[in-house]
């Protein structure tokens, strides 16, 4: 075993790849200008929408004390940070003919992408549990979902994301890269990077599936199971207000599907990658962070009322009226 480790270290020292070339979404200059304007609009919408939710939840004490809005504030913060990992770099590359990223920059992008992405998956699972308790055990909801438990659940989500991302970095950093160095994507991610390693990556790809693929699949199945129980409970015990809750569940499932299904498609598929992967990856790096504020607030009377009460004072500090 020690000889194998020394061999990997020797290969890493012999690597002559110091940067990766990103092929991006298109090589056409005219199309890149159009995509720049389109994704710039998306990015502005992501930042403003998620920032508005974070500020609204923080300013209004009654929202911050509610488990659902407490988790929603953290979800918006994660989406805000997640968009900053890939979109600014992508926007800059749209205006350049040469698109490249250093090896250390690539590792940094992989780390934060998986740290925030896994934290969001765990948080969405926690939010499904929160809805399950609220609907299936409403009399004890506030007792069960007390502030201490909510805090520990959020910390567990962040810690889980950290552990997951460190494992991803360990998978990549041990690999030697001798060329070629072209990534068919608009950002660095593990499936494309390990394909460029000048060694047999069978074990690494199996570990990637076990780490990222199974994580996405298990969280997705837990979410579906939770919402299935909620729907069964609604159908058998509750009649009044059923349509409103069903609408909320449908909105949440939309978000869940847009995040988990592309991740399952990309990370649970071994030993091959397709050019269409970068299209699917846009769903959880760009589209979902943009849609989350709309999905979670458009049909939410409490959030819309709280947002209307926000006023921006000349000093720039949002306060209650």
Automatic annotation (TrEMBL):
Transmembrane segments annotated in the record for this chain: 33-57, 69-91, 111-129, 149-173, 214-234, 246-267, 279-298
Provenance organism: Macaca fascicularis
Ranges of residues in domain G-protein coupled receptors family 1 profile: 49-296
Gene: OR4Q3
Matches recorded under InterPro entries: GPCR_Rhodpsn, GPCR_Rhodpsn_7TM, Olfact_rcpt, Olfactory_Receptors
SUPFAM superfamilies: Family A G protein-coupled receptor-like
Localization per Swiss-Prot or TrEMBL: Cell membrane; Membrane
Keywords: Cell membrane, G-protein coupled receptor, Membrane, Olfaction, Receptor, Sensory transduction, Transducer, Transmembrane, Transmembrane helix
Protein's membrane topology: Multi-pass membrane protein
Protein name: Olfactory receptor
Gene Ontology cellular component terms for the protein in this record: plasma membrane
GO molecular function ontology, one term from the record: G protein-coupled receptor activity
Family affiliation: Belongs to the G-protein coupled receptor 1 family.
Pfam families linked: 7tm_4
Keyword Cell membrane included in the entry's annotation: yes
